[in-house]
Design a protein that fits this description.
The protein has 101 residues and is mainly α. The protein has helices spanning 2-57, 62-74, 78-81. It has 2 domains: 1-57; 59-101, no CATH class.
């Protein structure tokens, strides 16, 4: 009988250890997900900065026209469009985006 008690105590100890390890694993996975999200946001910020700087320096380029067209197409909310005044006319409708010749 003493052997039976030892085994059941060992099983309980292992279960508790597994629960602690499971909690640590969930925490590590959550930290990893947050880190990945932060890295993705940083990539978006950097890429956006590069494109906006390029558009400002080269407004008549084909790439600037393409990026303007993409912004014009995908910015559907007025609050988002307001961040890009070149795309919004006085009455809030789309402004004419430069077209290739």
């Amino acid at each position: 009988m003493a052997q039976h008690v030892k085994v059941s105590d060992e099983i309980e100890a292992l279960r508790k250890r597994r629960e602690k390890l499971d909690a640590k694993l969930r925490e590590a996975q959550a930290r990893q997900k947050e880190q990945e999200r932060e890295e993705q946001e940083k990539r978006r910020l950097i890429a956006g900065t590069v494109f906006l700087d390029f558009m400002a320096a080269n407004p008549d380029s084909e790439l600037a026209r393409t990026l303007s067209q993409l912004l014009d197409k995908h910015l559907t909310r007025a609050i988002d469009r307001a961040l890009f005044p070149a795309l919004v006319s006085v009455n809030g409708a789309s402004a004419n985006v430069a077209k290739p010749d």
